Amino acid sequence: MAEWVDKKVLMIGAARQGIALSRYLAQKGASVTLNDRRSEEVLQPIVEELMDLDVTLVAGSHPPSLLENVDLVCLSGGVPLDIPIVQEAVRQNIPLSNDSQIFLEEAPCRVIGITGSAGKTTTTALVGEMARQHYAIRKPENLVWVGGNIGNPLIQYLEEMQTDDLAVMELSSFQLEIMTLSPQIAAVLNLTPNHLDRHQSMSKYISAKAKILMHQTQDDVAVLNRDDTNVRDLFSEVRGRRITFGLNPPHDKQDATYYKRGKLYLQASGQVAKIMNADLVNLRGTHNLYNVLAAIAIAAAGTFSLQAIYDGIINFHGVPHRLEFVRNWGGADWYNDSIATTPERALAALQSFDQPIILLAGGRDKDLPWEKFGRLVREKVDHLVLFGEAADRINKVVSQTTGSERPYTIDCYQSLKEAVQCAAEHIEPGDVVLLSPGGTSFDEFNDFEERGRRYTQWVKELS
């Protein structure tokens, strides 16, 4: 465990990760400067939250003078590596770190880390439920901690953790790109274009994700999607045991999970166990079947009991803002899929329904391709309601895509609230109204959670 007393740390970014890490380091005796480009007025609640600690706030910009005599520079997930102050820190050979790296350095217990372009939150939450079911019987005196890029940063619970606890951690490419440690169990769910506005290229994005595997040892376990070509390319990076997951049975006796004739199976150490009938899964869509198969494989790596795996799946009904049913109004079912911040995620949501669809899409684009999205909209969406900064771009792609006569209408609005009101005018009994944006929320909201909450509020206010 690191010695933090009298260390001088610069924390760039006063988001939840930066706040949690600043508090942890200051409580350990470090002198922390918390730096954010937002104004001091906006950050005043954070100042009050940390006022009892040795944390100094510098707001409004990132002056290079903050690097003087600094021992460590830590970054919140949203802080890119190419801003001048970070590049200058690298030039001066000042080490970079973040809350996830420091958590892995100091965690007293085993850690499961989960990453991927899509499905991270659902899979992490499901593995957490399986783990709780297992620990309730096998280790009732110990706790399962779920966090990271989902919920709260795990660094804020570090002092409470015990050796026989378990941490289940969602990890983003933003966190992984500077990390030099890997969790004992590491899962890569899939690798499709995402965050190219940050990483500039698909190869750099994959390199960031791959770091979850690169620092494992021969005693560790990697869980990988064998149906994803980009993930299969990472098989050579595996240092220890490998467990794969996919829809079809593997061609050999490798440790794996798979789907066959309506049932989910685990194959390990040459033995095959039926986990359950797939129709007992409470989640819609093929993409969620992959998430469940991944979670079973991760649970096998964690040596959870088969009963705990089964009970975890049966008791899991999804996460907020992921294909979340809001209400039936006007004869239509309204769903909140605000967590879909890429075209690929919106595609998965669309493929989960067979009913006529009114789709609300938009937000802020991440420089990702929309062509596949445009083709599926042509096939499945009756009414397309676009909103936010990306509306014009999506409209152009869909309008230029050849295919069926769908969508019958395309409407563009500046705000999500206007889009909800427009959707309400189009509905017919039996429709599905689906918010699955494909873009981030940052043009109008603080995050996808706020966007999902406001959407739910406006839908519930319809009368």
Count the beta strands: 20
Terminal Cα separation, in Å?
Answer: 58 Å
The pLDDT mean sits at: 95
Strand order of the largest sheet: 7-8-6-9-10-11-12-13-14
Question: How would a textbook summarize the main sheet?
Answer: 9 strands, mixed
Helix share bin: 25-40%
CATH superfamily of the largest domain: Mur-like, catalytic domain
Tally of individual helices: 16
How does the SSE layout of this entry go?
Blueprint: E1 8-12, H1 16-27, E2 31-36, H2 44-49, E3 55-59, E4 72-75, H3 84-91, E5 96-97, H4 99-106, E6 110-115, H5 120-138, E7 144-148, E8 166-170, H6 173-176, E9 185-188, H7 196-199, H8 202-214, E10 221-225, H9 229-232, E11 241-245, E12 256-260, E13 263-268, E14 271-277, H10 286-301, H11 306-314, E15 324-329, E16 332-336, H12 343-350, E17 357-362, H13 371-380, E18 381-387, H14 391-400, E19 409-413, H15 416-426, E20 432-438, H16 448-460
Parallel strand pairs: 1-2, 1-4, 2-3, 4-5, 6-8, 6-9, 7-8, 9-10, 10-11, 11-12, 16-20, 17-18, 17-20, 18-19
Antiparallel strand pairs: 12-13, 13-14, 15-16
Q: What features would you highlight for this structure?
A:
463 residues, alpha/beta, Rossmann fold, UDP-N-acetylmuramoyl-L-alanine:D-glutamate ligase, Protein-Tyrosine Phosphatase, Chain A, 3 domains, 9-stranded mixed beta sheet, 6-stranded mixed beta sheet, 16 helices, 23% strand, globular
